[in-house]
Amino acid sequence: MTENQNTEEPKVEETIGEPQLATTSQEGYGEVVAPRYKGFLGKVDKFYGITKMKSGFKTEIVAGCTTFMTMVYILMVHPNMFAETGEVSYGAMYIVTALSAIVGTLLMSFLAKIPFAQAPGMGLNAFFVYTICMTMGYTYAQALLIVLFSGFLFLFLTIIGARKAIVRAVPACIRVAISAGIGLFVAFVGLQNAGLIVPDAGTGVALVSFNLRTFTTDGATMIAAAISIASLIIIAIFSKLNFKASIVLGIVGSALMYYACCGIGVAVGSESCKAVFTTISEEFNLNPFVAFQEFGTQAFGQVFKNGFTVPSNMIFDFIAALVAFAMVDMFDTLGSLMGACQAAGKESGLIDEKGEVKNIQRALLSDSIATCTGAILGTSTVTTFVESASGVAVGGRTGMTALVVAVLFAVAMFLSPIAALIPSCATAGALVYVGVLMMRNVIDIDWKDPATAVPAFLTIAVMSFAYSISYGIAAGFISYTLIKLCTGKIKEISPVTAVLSLVFIFTFLFTH
Q1: Model pTM above 0.70
Q2: Which residues of the chain are modeled with pLDDT < 50?
Q3: What is the rounded CA–CA span in Å between residue 72 and residue 245?
Q4: Residue 186 and residue 128: Cα distance in Å, rounded?
C-alpha cells in the first residue's frame, strides 16, 4: 500500500443546507463521494444522480424556480396569440399551454434526466397562428394535424438517429438565418398586436398616431401602443440588471401601468378607456375551472375531431408547412440544448467526452413525444426552451430541476383568471424582446460571401415581409441551391438541401 492511499472511511459533515461531501482519493479511481441523503431523499438522489453531478436539492430547487420565472411569460403570450384565431379562447389555451409544458418538462425530468424545460415554442406558435391559420387558410384543427404529423416525423427521425444528421446537413447560413428571421417575425407580430404598427392603405403598414387631439376617442389605443414600448424598455432594463425574471416583471409592470393610464383616461373623459374597464367587469370570472371546461370543449382532441378534413388542393401546402415546422423545431431543440450545456462547461457534467449533450438522444425523444402530445392537447410544437440556460447557470444539473419547473406550471394552471387580465400590449414587449434575443446570431453569417449572405438575407426578409416563416425558409433553400449550382459548387449542396429545395419549388409552382 502506498503512502498516497487513504484507508480511512470518508467523513460526512452534518450541516444544514446542501450536502457536504467528504472525499477520499483512491489510486486509479479518482474521488469517491459519500452522499449525505438517506431514505426517500437518498432514492431521489440516486435516481437523478444529484450527488454524482456535484449538486444538491437546494441548488436544484433554486434552479427550477429560476427557469420557471424566466419562461412563465409563455402562459400569457401564447394564449393571446391563439385567441386571435377566433376558434379557441384565451382560457382554453392557457390550460393547454400549462399542460403541454408540464408533459414536456416531466419527460425531460424522468426520461432524459437533464435540467431543461419544454413548452410551446415561440416563433412556432406565431407560424401556426399567423401563417398556417390566418394566411394559408387552415382551420385550428387542421393546423394541429400538421403539428401532429411533424411530431411523428420527429419521433421517427429520432428513433433511427437521423435527426442530428439532417440538421447538420442544412447549410449553416440558413440554420442561423431561420432563427434570426423568426425573431424579426415575432417582433413584428408583437408590434402589431400592441397597435403600435397599424395597417395603412398607401404603404401597407404605418406607425400609430399619438395625436393628443384624438385622445378622447382613441385614448386606449394610444395608451396600449405606448405601453408596448414601455414593456420592452422595462424588460431591457431588468435584463441589463441581470434579473432572472426580467420578462415576467416587464409584463406585470406594464400591465399595471396600462390600467393606471386607462384610469387616468377615464378621468379626462376618454370613452375608449372607459370601455376597457366595462369589458373587464362583464367578462372577468374568478373561477379557474371555467378555463378547464373551455379546454375540454375547444382544444383537447380537436386534431382528431376536425383535423382530418384537409382539402386535396392544399396537400402540398400541408407538406411545405410540415417541413417548416420540422426544420425550425430541430434547430430550436438542438441549439437550446447545445448552447446551454456548452455555456455551463464540461465541468458541469452536462457535456460528455465527445462534446455532446448528456442523454441527448433521450432529450430529442422527449421533445418528439411532447410535440405529439401537445398537438393532441391543442397547441403548436412543444420544444426545449432556451430560457432553461438560466437554471443551468445557477447550478441546475439534473432532472430534479425540470421536475420543479413542472410542479410550478401545475400550480400556475389554476391562475388563469389573473393571467387573463394581462393585456396584449403588455406581452408585446416580451415578443419584441424574444425577437431581439433570436436576432443575435446573425453575426455568425459570412456577409462578405454572396453565396451565404443572399440566402440568409432572403430567409430573414421574406419571413417578415411576406408574413410567412415557411416562405422565408423556402426562399433561403432555393436561393442557396441555385447560387451554388450556377457557380460550380454542386458538391457543397447536400442531398437534404437539394430535396427540400425541390419540394419548396414545387409548392410555389403548383399551390401558391
Answers
A1: yes
A2: 1-32
A3: 9
A4: 12
